[in-house]
Design brief:
Helices cover 25% and strands 30% of the residues. The two termini are 33 Å apart. It has 9 helices and 18 strands.
């Protein structure tokens, strides 16, 4: 078994974890719920080295430019996509950018990175950690899945000439482990439900841990509203809201038609001071029905198109929509085998306070906290300074420092 210092097997030269510059302040307590990610492990990823980030129902990752807060969200999104079965080249189109700063290649010119997480749930804390070789070619070189202090899955790259890793998972039957080859471009944990028979108690333990991990990692929505693309009319037609919120007007039309309660909450959330009291947030056909545009219908009888709003109001509207709706509206992978009551949507927002004045960011944090209390959403956002959120109930604040 690999030592704690190694964290994951394989020839990829990765720096040993070092104490990370992280401090945490938590107000309130986490609520129980379905499988959810509670820690992000950045052993060696971009500017982050030896960092463990605790994640609550509502988490703010604060730090100055260059502290690694954006790369932390990038690692979270990468794990979510790997958990859903995506291939490495899809998840890491620029793998060299993920290699730790000043990481030196070995004699074979190999460099890489290492990430992981912890998910809590019915099986207790489950932790996958994966070592990825970024150069000279992208591949998994080692992975380890642990639960209850026991290694349930271990993989290692034994022959660099083969596009596979050797895997061994816990069996606890007539043989203590089962050995097989797994592809070197996928997360092994996500493949276990397809490979483990579940005939022995040990196999069922492995299955339960892997399934909890996969469920926790899925239903992640990275939300990065781009006001320049949400202002004008957009093509009409069904379709979920993507992370950039480009089709905001079209999705607003759908929420008004099919999500009356959520739409009413959204109208209340986007009352913009510059437009006066908002009576209705509506949409209408534009350019002979091929396009749709969104408007704020004010109580004084006037109307304001979304294109007339400032960036802060547009970002606030898009983020509020993401928090108030859910997988049926948002472009996200949903564990279809789970009932709605057991689904938790994680919304990742890089620059949650970007372009928002003090009032808007406080209102958005309050909205996020209220939706967290319902138990169906777990927002995690980055901010430069979290002092304005000090003392907010239920908020986990993680401070990252560059040095």
């Amino acid at each position: 078994m690999p030592s704690d210092a190694e964290r994951a097997p394989g020839p990829c030269p990765l720096p040993a974890p070092a104490p990370g510059p992280v401090s945490v302040a938590v107000q309130g307590s986490a609520h129980p719920g379905p499988p959810r990610v509670t820690e992000l492990l950045l052993s060696a990823f971009a500017v982050n080295r030896g960092v463990t980030l605790p994640l609550g129902p509502l988490t703010l990752i604060a730090g100055p430019s260059g502290s690694g807060r954006t790369s932390a969200l990038r690692a979270y999104e990468a794990l979510a996509r790997l958990g859903a079965g995506a291939e490495l080249h899809e998840v890491f189109p620029r793998p060299g950018a993920c290699v730790p700063e000043r990481a030196r290649p070995d004699a074979q010119q190999r460099r890489g990175f290492r990430i992981g997480c912890t998910a809590d749930g019915p099986e207790g804390p489950v932790r996958p950690e994966v070592a990825v070789q970024a150069e000279p070619e992208l591949r998994v070189v080692g992975e380890r899945l642990t639960a209850g202090g026991q290694v349930l899955l271990r993989t290692a790259l034994s022959d660099p000439r083969r596009r596979a890793v050797q895997a061994a998972w816990h069996t606890a039957g007539s043989a203590p482990v089962t050995r097989a080859s797994l592809p070197d471009d996928r997360l092994g944990t996500a493949l276990l439900p397809l490979r483990v028979a579940g005939k022995t108690p040990g196999q069922r333990t492995v299955l339960a841990a892997a399934e909890q991990m996969v469920v926790a990692l899925r239903s992640v929505f990275p939300c990065a509203p781009r006001p320049d693309r949400t202002r004008g009319p957009v093509p009409a037609g069904p379709g979920p809201l993507p992370g950039g919120c480009d089709n905001l007007a079209d999705v607003l039309a759908g929420t008004r038609a099919g999500h009356g309660g959520g739409h009413a909450l959204l109208v209340d959330a986007v009352r913009a001071r510059r437009t006066g009291p908002v009576a209705v947030l509506l949409t209408e056909p534009y350019d002979p029905g091929r396009l749709v545009r969104a408007l704020l219908d004010r109580a004084d009888g006037g109307r304001t198109e979304l294109r007339g709003l400032v960036d802060g109001d547009l970002r606030y509207t898009a983020l509020a929509l993401a928090l108030l709706t859910g997988p049926g509206v948002l472009e996200t992978d949903v564990p279809g085998e789970l009932p709605d009551a057991l689904r938790t949507l994680t919304v990742l927002v890089d620059g949650l306070d970007r372009s928002l004045d003090s009032r808007r960011r406080t209102e958005l944090l309050g909205l996020a906290a209220r939706e967290c209390a319902r138990g169906h959403v777990r927002p995690t956002g980055t901010v430069t300074d979290a002092s304005w959120a000090a003392g907010a109930a239920g908020v986990t604040v993680v401070h990252l420092d560059r040095d």
